[in-house]
Amino acid sequence: MKELSSLMEYRKGVKVVDATLRDGGLVNDFFFTDEFVKDLYKANIKAGVDYMEFGYKADKEMFDVNKFGKWKFCNDEDIRDIVGDNNTDLKLAIMADVGRCNYKNDIAPKNESPVDLIRVATYLNTIPSAIDMIEDAVNKGYETTCNIMAISAGQESDIKVALDMLGKSPAKVFYIVDSYGAIYPEELARVIDLYAEFAVKYDKKIGIHAHNNQQLAFANTIEAVGDGVDWLDATYASMGRGAGNCAMELLLGFLCNPKYNVYPVISFIEKHMNKLREDGVVWGYDLQYLMTGLLNQHPRTAIAFTKEGRKDYAEFYKEVVAQD
To answer: Which domains are seen in the chain, by residue range?
Structure first.
């Protein structure tokens, strides 16, 4: 059992990362209004959030700029239009996805960019490419994290090799990413122990990015806090791909650190997030996401089920079981 102080006290090392624009952008193809983004930026400042992730640095030769909003590509000038010189305590982040980012050309040196942190996203089989991206970003002056996706589908031996390789890289944080929303808190505790072995060895921090397929994103995130994980991802109103993520309002309401303030988050949700839902943007827990989470599958089939407006849940269950 955890020490009660692990949950009731606060650690100064905890960092809260807002991933609403990036993970939420997967729901609406990144078509957010400038008013939405500016108000989100202001809300994060008032709430004491540590990092705000603006979106992806996607390769414009791979993705049609006319089919996505600008936060799929995160041009520095677009970020500056929102934040100006960003003379605040809030740091800015973008995600660079292995194989989908022309990082050597599209990521400028830090002294030319408003961005502070490059979050490199990778699967276990692309760790060498991720390390090259991390080294490129660090050489340009950025902080870096490495987000290892679909960790629930990985073999322990492969995870150990990946963490040992990343430990020798300049990445400052190893992220546990429960892409499929398949991990239970008891399992997460064991994953954290595995990560901690290499985090201690190489003096790194651990992060958690949870998905809500089984309504465990918040539970897993606070499980991680109690086990010493310092970097915590969340999104406003849980907005994110498929079933969504750990809700920012839940996380800030839980953390005992007086630097965080949940009221600006609630105000933003009232003004903007409810309107998104009213306008037809769909995300959040539902039976189809539960099914893929239970089966430890990528939610792409559940996302397609949702977009098609299907309601034949029992038939869908038979379909995904057949794929397992």
So the answer is: 10-278 (3.20.20.70), 287-323 (no CATH)
